[in-house]
Design goal:
This protein has 135 residues and is mainly α. The protein has 7 helices and no strands. The protein has one domain: 434 Repressor (Amino-terminal Domain) (Orthogonal Bundle). The radius of gyration is 16 Å and the shape is elongated.
Length: 135
């Protein structure tokens, strides 16, 4: 599941809404919504994310967070390091070749460390899950 998919599913569940409800509103299939959530489709377009925000009645910070998560949920990201130092190329390749060996906690720790280096704070909660009744 992608960060975007996890958040969208949680918001949908809180509202008592289904994949079918969402697909009907957006004019897409529930299978497509499920594929977006699980990273089996590329990240959604900004226009689709805007429509999802409208459907979920999100405003301000929550809408911005969902848009950011959509941006950060590409299932096959590309890292261009051609003009960067060799350390950057090595780091990108090391992560790409070994990410499947890291636990969720290790990924979270690397994420938090990187956030600290970049001095960014986004309020992302990777532990958020929808209520059991919506799974």
């Amino acid at each position: 599941m992608t960060p975007f998919g996890l958040k969208m599913r949680s918001l949908r569940a809180k509202g008592g809404l289904t994949l079918q409800d969402q697909g009907d509103f957006l004019g897409v299939s529930s299978a497509y919504i499920s594929a977006l959530e699980h990273g089996k489709r590329g990240r959604p377009s900004p226009a689709l994310v805007d429509q999802i925000c409208v459907w979920l009645e999100l405003i301000w910070d929550e809408a911005e967070l969902l848009k950011y998560l959509a941006q950060m949920s590409h299932p096959a990201p590309t890292v261009k390091t051609a003009s960067l130092p060799p350390e950057a190329t090595f780091l990108a390749n090391l992560l790409a070749q070994n990410i499947d060996r890291l636990t969720a906690q290790q990924c979270r720790q690397i994420f938090e460390d990187l956030q600290g280096y970049l001095k960014q704070e986004r309020g992302i909660n990777f532990d958020e899950e929808p209520p059991k009744s919506a799974r």
